[in-house]
Design goal:
The protein has helices at 3-13, 24-31, 39-47, 55-64, 82-106, 111-125, 133-142, 149-161, 180-183, 192-207, 212-219, 223-233, 270-273, 284-287, 332-348; strands at 34-35, 67-71, 77-81, 165-167, 177-179, 238-242, 245-249, 262-265, 300-303, 306-315, 319-326, 353-356. A hairpin with a 2-residue loop joins strand 9 (300-303) and strand 10. The protein is an alpha+beta fold. The strands form four sheets. It has a five-stranded mixed β-sheet. Helices cover 46% and strands 16% of the residues.
Length: 357
């Protein structure tokens, strides 16, 4: 196995090639979690992995509660299936809380403050209300708790970690919060070893081939915990040594065939953000190019699992304008396929056409 093989197998396991999924929530469950702080592009990350997915259908799944958007695992926004939100939060929130400790101390936020704010927020949402952050924080201020923007952010953040709140349905372009217990079904808790194994299995099924270091990065867990999860599921997977590191992946009868067409990948996509080591997706010339955004921060053009360019979009009334900035040489076939990729993205967001500039 080499890096090109790893890239090909990841494309298949991440459902970029020949997806079998039509339901957004089922796709998110397969992935374990999908990073989603760029909301519009995160919906595209899900859409790429569906048969005939649209921005509207994915938003509907989020608003209806099949997909939960909250801070989970690493301290950033993720999509997670509602059935998985509770046990993954139970597993990863204690680690995230420790990471936030220094900032909490600087802001003079502690468990006594969070008990007051959590109780207040829970009562505000108890009758099924879905409120914006501004509406929630206005009530917190009325209760005598001072909040600048940073304190407000961390009060809401901790309420997510404590399973008080998660996303509600969007109100126009505004995001709202709902009561976690009303959106997420009750479930029998998993013990820590069970949860570590469950999350590791989900990760290596959907993201493999990957290493234990990749799993630690993606999950936000300590390397010690990640190794426990890794060892618990090792027997369920094939393994291979590449560059002195052990990769786990599900067995396949043959190496996936990856067409030479270009794909428009969103920023923070699981194809890059899902791994500590991104060398399978980035040749050295790309990794060293500051315009690549480290393969994370900008929308990417990928060919056969390799980053070859970045792209930028501007939405018009009936079309979307797409600008390509090359990072390495693109084949003629890939260049010709850009229009097909752009048309697919335009259809996804409800536009008639894509115009390349």
């Amino acid at each position: 196995m080499n890096l090109s093989d790893i890239a090909a197998i990841r494309l298949a396991n991440q459902q970029i090639l020949n997806t079998s999924f039509t339901n957004p929530a089922e796709l998110v469950a397969w992935m374990g979690a999908v990073q989603s702080q760029d909301f519009a592009m995160a919906k595209w990350a899900v859409g790429l992995r569906l048969k005939k997915g649209t921005d509207a259908s994915i938003e509907q799944a989020i608003d209806a509660g099949g997909i939960i958007r909250t801070h989970i695992m690493r301290p950033t926004w993720h999509f997670v299936a509602k059935e998985d939100a509770r046990w993954i939060m139970d597993l990863t929130a204690p680690h995230v809380y420790k990471l936030a400790g220094t900032m909490y101390r600087q802001l003079k936020l502690d468990d006594s403050v969070f008990k007051i704010t959590n109780d207040l927020i829970g009562k505000l949402l108890a009758d099924g209300n879905e409120l914006t952050r501004e509406e929630v924080i206005a009530e917190v201020n009325k209760a005598g708790i001072e909040t600048d923007n940073l304190r407000a952010t961390h009060i809401m953040f901790q309420a997510e970690l404590d399973k008080i709140i998660c996303n509600g349905a969007r109100r126009g372009k505004k995001f709202t919060y709902a009561l976690f217990d009303k959106k997420v079904p009750a479930a029998t808790p998993l013990n820590r070893d069970e949860a570590l194994a469950a999350l590791a299995k989900r990760y290596f099924l959907s993201h493999g081939p990957a290493t234990v270091q990749d799993f630690a990065w993606w999950s936000g867990l300590s390397l010690t915990d990640s190794k426990r999860g890794f060892e618990a599921v090792r027997g369920d997977f094939e393994s291979a040594l590449v560059g002195g590191r052990e990769y786990l992946f599900r067995a396949a009868t043959e190496l996936p065939k990856v067409p030479a067409n270009a794909m428009l990948i969103p920023p923070f996509d699981e194809l890059t953000i899902g791994y500590a080591d991104r060398s399978a997706a980035m040749d050295d010339i790309v990794a060293q190019n500051p315009d690549s955004g480290n393969g994370i921060f900008k929308p990417l053009v990928m060919v056969k699992g390799k980053i070859v360019a970045v792209w930028r979009r501007t939405e018009k009334k009936d079309s979307v304008n797409i600008e390509i900035s090359p990072l390495s040489k693109m084949s003629v076939a890939a260049e010709k396929s850009l229009q097909t990729a752009g048309t697919a993205y335009a259809r996804f967001i409800g536009k008639k056409s894509a115009v390349f500039q």
